[in-house]
Design brief:
alpha+beta
Length: 90
Amino acid sequence: MQRGVRLGRRLAELLEIPQDIVLDLARLTLVGNLQLVLENHRGIVEYSPDRVRLALAQGELTVSGSDLVLVSLAEDEIVIEGHISKVEFS
């Protein structure tokens, strides 16, 4: 594990704050297979009704399914609804 990540985790523990804030990580909330909320994204790479690719600080997130719709898009949060069949980090 990288030294900066270890230091960030320790700092988060000492200050009792979430690791995703200190380490600039994405926070993903999946509601069944119908809705996905992603916080701390870097933008949309690809969008179609079958696949949405999102840039993250540490790579990409691909959401696959059918009838996917962007319900809400903010600077650091996105909400996707539809039939979600797969979520993949790369």
